[in-house]
């Protein structure tokens, strides 16, 4: 985890806003996560058709966050957002066990893309408050994150 934090710190200080791409399956909660980061509160959202773009300030660091829709037909367009991405957040619905295999396939497709090879990656296990939500460790196993080559995997539980 120290290595990932060091890389993020290098990206953040003394530079333009860090470009973050946030993706995941539809209904994973990407837009809710974005606006919780931006506004500090949960707001009502609608499915994202296209993208949302916001600048988020955190401890004097600016992040430009691209929240891209996760519907099946939109996923083919994700690649057009890869350029200059410094960090990738993949949001997973921890309570939707039926779609974990689909999420696993998408994560592995993303990590195989050369344009994202240098991007720091965070898998965000969302909806932990829902009944039957899998733990971060269970999500890590189900998505086979340890099998991704060239990526350090840590289980960091933080109650924001």
Automatic annotation (TrEMBL):
Database matches in InterPro entries: P-loop_NTPase (IPR027417), Small_GTP-bd (IPR005225), Small_GTPase_ARF (IPR024156), Small_GTPase_ARF/SAR (IPR006689)
Record protein name field: ADP-ribosylation factor family protein
PANTHER family in the record: ADP RIBOSYLATION FACTOR-RELATED (PTHR11711)
UniProt similarity note: Belongs to the small GTPase superfamily. Arf family.
Ligand binding (Mg(2+)): 31, 48
GO molecular function terms listed in the Swiss-Prot or TrEMBL record: GTP binding; GTPase activity; metal ion binding
Any Gene Ontology biological process: establishment of cell polarity
Database matches in PROSITE patterns: ARF
Gene that this sequence comes from: Acey_s0390.g552
């Amino acid at each position: 985890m120290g290595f990932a934090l060091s890389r993020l710190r290098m990206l953040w200080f003394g530079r333009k806003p860090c470009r973050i791409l946030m993706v995941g399956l539809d209904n994973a909660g990407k837009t809710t996560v974005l606006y919780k980061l931006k506004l500090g509160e949960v707001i009502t959202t609608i499915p994202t058709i296209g993208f949302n773009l916001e600048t988020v300030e955190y401890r004097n660091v600016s992040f430009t966050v691209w929240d891209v829709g996760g519907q099946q037909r939109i996923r083919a367009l994700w690649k057009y957002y890869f350029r200059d991405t410094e960090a990738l957040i993949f949001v997973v619905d921890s309570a939707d066990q039926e779609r974990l295999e689909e999420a696993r396939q998408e994560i592995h497709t993303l990590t195989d893309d050369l344009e994202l090879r240098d991007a720091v990656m965070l898998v965000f296990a969302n909806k932990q408050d829902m009944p039957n939500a899998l733990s971060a460790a269970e999500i890590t196993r189900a998505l086979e994150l340890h099998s991704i080559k060239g990526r350090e995997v840590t289980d960091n539980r933080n109650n924001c």
